[in-house]
Amino acid sequence: FEKSNSPPPPPHPNIEIPETKANFFSLITCWWANDLMSLGYKRPLEKDDLYVLNEKRTAKILTDKFEVEWQNELQKITMGKKPSLLKALFRVLWFKFCLSGVCRVSSDVLIVIAPLVLMLMLNFVSESYFANIHNDVQPPAHIGYILIVILFIMKMSDSTLFAFSFFCGLETGVLSRTILITAIYRKALVLSGKARSLFTNGKITNLMSTDTTRIDY
């Protein structure tokens, strides 16, 4: 793990984040970030080393989509229903939200099943032990190897899916906060004089800097 004595590579120009073109394995293991991590190990990262954010994740694009969904929610007022901010956010970020949920549920299912596979392994070991003592026919050895491989794959998949679901959850929280901050800022620019008397600069700043952070949790 010693650092290489070779000169550090020069900063590369702005490149779009590889996550946008990564395959499923690279996404779920965050393999697409290896180049940046390797560069950061060799030398301190600079501004030009950071990837360019995908256009679909920019504040403008996300907030434009949110405002369309929010206007649809506001139309519920005419029908006597209460608009839902959560539903508007969900329709914008539904894919990441659902992906995080699917990965988390899959991880939990593997956690539940793992003890059952372990029980089969213990039964196999017990049967082999007593068969050896009593000179009986022992169960096929390949069954034990198969159970070991299955348990290994299950535990690796469990850890990977849980970490990826956590990553997707954090990403969804950050994008949600970005949308809310931008939406509040846009609204603050078009407030009427009467509305400004109710929403002071301090209150608006507090909404953007403090209240929006609660969306992460």
From TrEMBL:
The chain crosses the membrane at residues 105-125. Keywords: ATP-binding, Membrane, Nucleotide-binding, Transmembrane, Transmembrane helix, Transport. It is a multi-pass membrane protein. Coiled coil: none annotated. Pfam families: ABC_membrane (PF00664). It is found in: Membrane. Its main location: membrane. The keyword Secreted does not apply. It comes from the Eukaryota. Residues 99-217 form the ABC transmembrane type-1 domain. InterPro entries: ABC1_TM_dom, ABC1_TM_sf, ABC_transporter_C-like. One of its GO terms (molecular function) is ATP binding. One of its GO terms (cellular component) is membrane. Belongs to the ABC transporter superfamily. ABCC family. Conjugate transporter (TC 3.A.1.208) subfamily. This is ABC transmembrane type-1 domain-containing protein. It comes from Gigaspora rosea.
